[in-house]
Specification:
By secondary structure, this protein is α/β, with parallel strands linked by helices. It folds into 2 domains: 24-75 and 195-257 and 344-379, 3-Layer(bba) Sandwich (FAD/NAD(P)-binding domain); 127-189 and 258-341, D-Amino Acid Oxidase, subunit A, domain 2 (D-Amino Acid Oxidase, Chain A, domain 2, 2-Layer Sandwich). It contains 10 helices and 19 strands. The protein has helices at 24-31, 43-55, 85-95, 97-117, 120-123, 137-158, 168-173, 193-206, 308-322, 366-379; strands at residues 36-39, 61-65, 79-80, 130-134, 164-166, 181-185, 189-190, 210-213, 217-223, 226-231, 235-238, 241-243, 258-267, 278-281, 286-291, 294-299, 331-341, 348-353, 356-360. Strands 5-6-4-14-15-16-13-17 form an 8-stranded mixed beta sheet, sandwiched between helices. A 6-stranded mixed beta sheet has the order 8-2-1-12-19-18, with helices on one face. Strand 18 (348-353) and strand 19 (356-360) form a beta hairpin. The longest helix is centred in the middle third of the chain and has 22 residues, at 137-158. It starts with 23 loop residues before the first helix and ends with a helix.
Length: 382
């Protein structure tokens, strides 16, 4: 039997555009001439939208995100932190005392704003405190000697000593092993990222703010007195655009921000795990916490590794060595988060052009500063 050529070898498009186009129902029902378009539905974007609603009750506000879950905020580790001692000493030496206090105050006030806006129960927040674990004796001695100065500098922010030196026995009681020293803080906490995002989305819904996922913004152009947001589904015309895409903002405009991939792994349930607080190591580059009886550990960007899989394995080995009950750690969850970083530690909150705003470069501190960054961004339009 002689077979002819296969019929279904290609399906050439008969569309003039590569975008699917927006239906009349989509345009009229969701995105017809919005007063404001917010790009990014993470912590910053959601707080931008909510603050815009307070300032402008009659505005039609539309929020877009290319992710099905909504931004990088659903991929964070849920640390309600403001910086470990070694991280803050490094900032003190590079930025100076005035800038350090400003940085920590921004983070602390942001955490307070988050908790004042939503109940701890709804955020899944626990005031568990934090520990920084040291495995380098030289670094530990240097940070230990700097603690009085660091606490004195930050006293105007906290009104109480932020950090305390721990004894070896205290470190062991709180889950550490094979470390040369530890410093604790009673002021930090942890939250449930899904709970936080869910309660913020509920607030958006109550305020009648349209949230659309699965649409990627590919460009922004000015047309007379309006802005045209080009998306994977079609173009949207609006008077105001708020870019809250953090690490990916440079794909839309020229800003000092770029993505920095961050590895996070979570173990199987570990019955012997002893870790009731959040844990930091090496200037905040490594961080760990308990999540539903499992151990979460992430970071490691300071390590020279061939790829993210190698970094994940090194994180596991660090946990097995230094955290009690983690000896049998096996990776059950593994993802990559994207930090928005740049040449400076402070976020970018600015009006780029009239009607065009950006709130980005969170530097891995989205939980701490995202609420206030979003609110400050929205106020630029008032």
């Amino acid at each position: 039997m002689v077979r002819g050529p296969s019929k279904n070898t290609s399906f050439p498009s008969n569309r003039a555009s590569h975008t699917p186009g927006l239906s009349i129902w989509e345009k009229l029902g969701w995105i017809q001439e919005p007063d404001a378009v917010v790009l990014g539905t993470g912590i910053v974007g959601m707080n931008t939208g909510l603050e815009l609603r307070k300032l402008h009750p009659d505005w039609h506000i539309v929020m877009l995100d290319r992710s099905a879950f909504g931004g990088a905020s659903t991929r964070n580790a849920g640390f309600a932190c403001f910086g470990s001692p070694s991280e803050l000493v490094e900032d003190l030496e590079s930025l100076g005392p005035e800038a350090l206090v400003k940085l920590v105050d921004m983070r602390w006030s942001g955490l307070n704003a988050l908790r004042a806006s939503w109940r701890d129960r709804d955020l899944g927040y626990t005031p568990c405190g934090a520990i920084e674990a040291f495995t380098d004796p030289v670094l530990f001695e240097r940070i230990r000697d700097m603690l009085p100065q660091l606490n004195a500098l930050l006293d105007p922010v906290f009104g109480t000593p932020a950090f305390q030196l721990m004894s070896d026995s205290e470190g062991e009681q709180r889950g550490l092993q094979d470390v040369c020293g530890a410093i604790s803080s009673p002021l930090e906490g942890a939250l449930d990222t899904a709970s936080m995002v869910r309660i913020m989305r509920h607030s958006l819904s109550k305020e009648g703010i349209e949230v659309i996922h699965g649409i990627d913004a590919t460009g922004i152009d000015q047309e007379h007195d309006r802005w045209r947001v080009r998306t994977s589904a079609g173009d949207i015309q609006t008077q105001r655009v708020f870019v809250c895409t953090n690490a990916w903002a440079a794909s839309l405009l020229d800003l000092d921000v770029a993505p920095a991939p961050n590895v996070v792994v979570v173990s199987q349930p570990l019955p012997g795990l002893v870790l009731n607080n959040t844990l930091h190591h090496d200037r905040g580059y490594v961080y760990a916490r308990e999540v539903h009886g499992r151990l979460l550990i992430g970071g490691g960007r300071q390590w020279e590794c061939d790829d993210n899989d190698a970094r994940a394995q090194k994180l596991v080995r660090w946990a097995q060595t230094h955290i009690q009950g983690a000896e049998g750690f096996a990776i059950k969850h593994h993802w990559i988060g994207q930090l928005g970083v740049g040449s400076q530690r402070l976020p970018i909150v600015k009006e780029v052009e009239p009607g065009f705003y950006a709130g980005v470069r969170l530097g891995g501190m989205g939980v701490a500063i995202g609420t206030n960054v979003g609110r400050a961004l929205a106020r630029l339009s008032d």
